[in-house]
């Protein structure tokens, strides 16, 4: 029970990595607040599963790119669960698109959700942790794309590099308050964000061939590393990033 009697707030918690992390954290003893947009069925079924595990849960809808939504998530989640101990910034989008004809609205929306949303959410969560006065842990889901480029991700990769950098700066700003800030960098994970891209059998086979462990990642593969960084096992880890990619990044041949 690595997170016994803790409260964990997570954005993008209705599906994919967020949902898997929320359920895994509940199994480790945490109560869960889920932030989501539009996926009512996934959010409410996740709450039901968490309650079946024996933990408390709440789902709050909103758009992470709206600063008011971040404040409301923290306020309503804290009112329901009593405290905010762990914050996981997970929400993100990646509408694949070529660079030369990238519409401005696609670039702006990706930036607003992935980077601006991370800033607003982390800031709101950190202020709540400071008010509580007992420290906390913040984990952001960055990406291997923070370290490498992608032909159809010229709008996405800068946001994930920014999320990684945000955690480094936040670690410095919040260390005096006992708040640790780290990031995970997933490789290619089978989620809705890349379902269409990986529907191409040849593309999927190529991606699998790049990975030393021989398979694409599953959402559950991220849950363990996130819980580790959120737990007291990582009590002296802050400003760090953890690649969770099956070895893809180091495979240059």
Automatic annotation (TrEMBL):
Gene3D superfamilies assigned: NAD(P)-binding Rossmann-like Domain
Top-level taxon: Bacteria
SUPFAM superfamilies with a match to the protein in the record: NAD(P)-binding Rossmann-fold domains
Secretion signal span: none
Alphabetical UniProt keywords: Oxidoreductase
Stored InterPro entries: NAD(P)-bd_dom_sf, SDR_fam
The name this protein goes by in its record: SDR family NAD(P)-dependent oxidoreductase
Organism: Sphingomonas abietis
